[in-house]
Amino acid sequence: MTTNKQVKQVLLITLFFNFAVAFGKIIIGMMSGALSITADGFHSLIDGSSNVMALIANKIASQPADDDHPYGHERYETLAALLIGVFLLLVAWEIITGAIERLANPTELVITPITFAVMITTLCINIGVSRYERKEAIRLNSELLMADSENTRADVFVTLSVIISMSLISLFGWVWADALSALIVVV
User: Fold this and answer.
1) What is the three-class DSSP state of 110?
2) Residue 128 CA to chain centroid, in angstroms?
3) Which residues have C-beta within 8 Å of that of residue 77, sequence separation ≥ 6?
4) SS3 of 74, please?
5) Residue 171 Cα to chain centre, angstroms
6) CA gyration radius for the chain?
7) C-alpha distances in angstroms, 122 versus 105, 180, 181?
8) Burial of residue 77, with CB atoms counted within 10 A of its CB: 0-12 exposed, 13-18 middle, 19 or more buried
9) Rounded to whole angstroms, how far apart are CA atoms 177 and 183?
10) For residue range 25-35, what is the model confidence (pLDDT) as tens digits?
11) This prediction's pTM
12) How far is it, in rounded angstroms, from Cα 187 to Cα 83?
């Protein structure tokens, strides 16, 4: 199996898990009313979308050199990595505006044991996916997989901040922690 096919396989596996995590977070975020969970879910959805973009870039990059591209098409991987960054900036803007609105107008949240279970499960999945993708990035010498694994690793810390905010809300009723955590998601 060629390197590009192996990269494609890793991206497809990662895509599945990113979408599963995203939909789990978005659904539980909407049920609980927690902006930070919903924001984290949309961040994961962007990660899944970036996997789709990476799959397209991988397909283009695997094409052999031609008259227009005498050195090959590998630079499309770099372009895809840049586009992923642009998507993240757009999501960040939406989260910032939502968090500012939430700080100005706090709302009651419903944090249940199921909310914690979903978030802890998605945290474990992100840890596993990040490790798997990084290992494969090194093995396949793929800049695209390495960039994506670092993005997924950052998601681990984002999800941890959301779990901490959920704990603060549950233990002390500090609803402002949700908006603060949403801003941490942006950072």
Assistant:
1) coil
2) 13
3) 54, 57, 58, 61, 142, 143, 144
4) coil
5) 28
6) 18
7) 29, 20, 17
8) buried
9) 10
10) 999 999 998 88
11) 0.79
12) 18
The type of residue at 161 is: S
Determine contact, residues 28/174, Cβ cutoff 8 Å.
no
Helix residue spans in the chain (DSSP H): 3-32, 35-61, 75-104, 113-140, 143-172, 176-186
Measured CA to CA, the distance from residue 30 to residue 94 in angstroms comes to 16
Residue with tokens 């596996």: 13
CA-to-CA distance for 4 and 14, rounded, in angstroms?
15
Q: Which residues contact 83 (CB under 8 A, 6 or more apart)?
A: 50, 53
Tally of CA atoms within 13 A in the half-sphere of 126 that contains its CB: 29
Q: What is the mean pLDDT of residues 71-95?
A: 70
CA-based max dimension of the chain? 65
Tokens representing 106 are: 């706090």
Q: Which long-range contacts (CB under 8 A, 24 or more apart) does 60-66 make?
A: 61/4, 61/144, 62/2, 62/4
Q: Among 81, 54, 37, which residue's Cα sits nearest to residue 170?
A: 37
pLDDT tens digits for range 117-152: 999 999 999 999 999 999 999 999 988 888 888 888
